[in-house]
Write a structure and sequence with these properties.
The protein has 119 residues and is an all-beta fold. Helix content is 0%, strand content 48%.
Length: 119
């Protein structure tokens, strides 16, 4: 099992920026492709971004490409999501997880971090 603790969310205005962090423990973090998901009120959890073990390859859902940037620090067992030009539709609880080969979440979810973007 991998334990995941997300942080960095908050209440911001449209156009603002935020940086989310995800601290991982319990497994060798650098062995995994990891990613961010989000769940908006009344909607299913959706994939946002992923990064491979080396940090050299990243993947984004279309709605955030060019505004969100995923990165990792394997020495610190930490995953990041830099979000710029935030929009009200980005409002959601954001979660991190290790990913399977088909980009499905591999472990139990953490508590997530709330991001609220006001217009």
């Amino acid at each position: 099992q991998m334990q995941l603790v997300e942080s960095g969310g908050g209440l911001v205005q449209a156009g603002d920026s935020l940086r989310l962090s995800c601290a991982a423990s319990g497994r060798t973090f650098s062995d995994y492709t990891v990613g961010w998901f989000r769940q908006a009120p009344g909607k299913e959890r959706e994939f946002v971004a992923a990064i491979d073990w080396s940090g050299e390859n990243t993947f984004y859902t279309d709605s955030v490409r060019g505004r969100f940037f995923i990165s990792r620090d394997n020495a610190k067992n930490t995953l990041y999501l830099q979000m710029i030009n935030l929009k009200p539709e980005d409002t959601a609880v954001y979660y991190c997880n290790a990913l399977t080969s088909t980009t499905q979440p591999k472990y139990d979810w953490g508590q997530g971090t709330q991001v609220t973007v006001s217009s």
